[in-house]
Amino acid sequence: MKIIEQERGQVSPEVPEDAVGRRVSCEGQRATVRYVGTVPPTTGLWLGVEWDNPDRGKHDGRHEGVRYFTCRHPTGGSFVRPKKSSFGMDFLTAVKHRYEMGLDQAIGNEVMISTKTVKMVGFESIVEKQRVENLTEIALTDCEVSGPGPENEIRENTPNAISVDLSGSLLSSWETVAAITEQLEELQILFLNHNRLRITLNPSSLSHAFSKIRVLSLNSCAVTWPQVLQCATMWPKIEELFLNDNNITELERPVDVLQGLKVLDLSNNNLVQESLPEISNLSRLETLNLSSAGLSVIHFSDALPGTKTAMFPALRILLLDDNKITEWDVINELEKLQCLVQVSCKRNPLMELETNQETTRQILIARIGQLETLNRSQVLQEERRGAELDYCKKFGRQWLNAGGHKDPDQNRPSAEFLTQHPRYVALIQKYGAPDEDELKEQKPFALKDQLLTITFECPEDANRKPIQKKLPGSMIVQKVKGLLYRLLKLPGAEIHLTYTSSKMEGREIEISNDLKPLQFYSVEDGDRILVRWS
Asked: Where are the beta strands (DSSP E) in 407-466?
């Protein structure tokens, strides 16, 4: 039975009997039908819809004092005529529109170029790959798929699909999705971004339809974390789950679900940061994206400073871009993670604490001992050594004042210092304690009076031209080497420096201590520094 609109003697487009709850497209916008019927004093049939974008609507389902339906947002609803709405098409129709349109005409594989007929060599193989039955990847983004179509039609026509993208479709429920995916017996990767899916009362009953799904993307689907956990029983083999830009706030502990997850994207969700440990039992999780999640604090309460946490035992990659992190304490907490090797924390207030961003990078590297990549840039071995040496010097005075001492038997820094700098003791064991005279504060000086004109030469590489730079005499050797790594593009090499002066013709003086300033070696204006590497 269909509901037919009749207005002024004309027959309108048909409205499905089960229209309420269905998804529709109207003037490029997506919505869910909440009401079908008349709206006095007008005549004819109306659809009451709740828009995905609440700014698109005018009311919450109430019109002239009468409530026809409800919306979550006060301006999320509208009334639209059925003839302006599309209820979409079935899966296979969308596939044929997308992949086979025009192929039949091209089977002759001959085209006219000028006045000659040219055979398109190799075009047969392209056409063959485009045949529906041969597709392994099916992309139907914004194709208004609303259901499976006739029984077994998908199974018979697209048996080889491994990856399917149904983002921005008109799918209304997980049962509808399952009716499609249960026929795609090889399906492993499924994109359902920008959909609104009702949850079945018994999600586990649909698990057979997602039995091979490894990668699932539900970005911008307005789901909550409890809903994710409720649905997770459908995805027994899930390894990668993308939940960017949803309604996820307070996290709850996954029990008997999601335990095979290796990748989890929770970016662009306003998370309750204290609930983050609730997902730390995901023992196989290797990549966690928490960018734009409103985080300012991360704390692993089971581990003391300088020890490792049992939480997130396999986590290797952590993305924290665009959060509200202001304290180094957060970075100290990340050092507790057993396997962490890659961190990105761009555009956090923390990155602006130091005047020089290069100094901030060095402190981050020094505080996280296993870090191999920072802000998507590789941490080279020589860079780590320089960062850790610089860190020892930068906080050496604070260490001494807190009870630190070069003699290991007398080295008893305070608990407060160790909380603030949990790696410091390990670093001085690695490199030795900095000399006290190196920790004396530099007296202010006029930069223009201290700049030295230095010529850098590479005596063992005749193809490299000398480079002349003006540098302050107080610049430490480690920073000079950092400059040379960038100027000479020597990633991974170990740089060795000597210098010669017009006052000492024929002699080269070795520059051996990375923590000493140039003036320590009596480098003067006009001297030459010789650069070698191995």
From this structure: 451-457
Distance CA 457, CA 528 (A): 7
Spell out the CATH class of 447-533.
alpha beta
DSSP conformation class of 449: H
CA distance 262 to 230: 19
Structure tokens at 425: 């003791």
Q: Any idea what DSSP says for residue 246?
A: S
Q: pTM (2 decimals)?
A: 0.75
Closest among 230, 274, 217, 223 to 256, alpha carbons compared: 230
Residue 171 Cα distances to 3, 74, 141, 199, angstroms:
21, 24, 12, 12
What type of residue sits at position 526?
A: G
| pLDDT at residue 114, rounded to an integer | 44
Residue bearing tokens 């679900």? 257
Task: List pLDDT tens digits, range 395-436.
Answer: 999 999 999 998 888 999 999 999 999 999 999 999 998 877
| Residues ≥6 apart with Cβ < 8 Å to 300 | 277, 280, 309, 311, 333, 336, 337
Q: Are the C-beta atoms of 157 and 132 separated by less than 8 Å?
A: yes
Instruction: Report strand pairing: 66-67 vs 62-63.
Output: antiparallel
Domain boundaries, the chain: 6-84, 89-227, 386-439, 447-533
Q: Are 520 and 449 in contact (CB under 8 A)?
A: no
CATH code given to domain 89-227: 3.80.10
Strand 528-533 and strand 495-500: the pairing is antiparallel
Angle at 451 (CA atoms; ends 448, 454), nearest 5 degrees: 155
Q: Are 236 and 259 in contact (CB under 8 A)?
A: no
Residue with tokens 């520094």: 529
CATH node for 6-84:
2.30.30.190
Query: What are the C-alpha distances in Å from 166 to residues 20, 24, 144, 192, 214?
Result: 21, 15, 9, 5, 16
Give yes or no for a cis peptide into 74 (omega within 30° of 0). no
Q: Which helix (H) or strand (E) holds 289?
A: strand 287-289
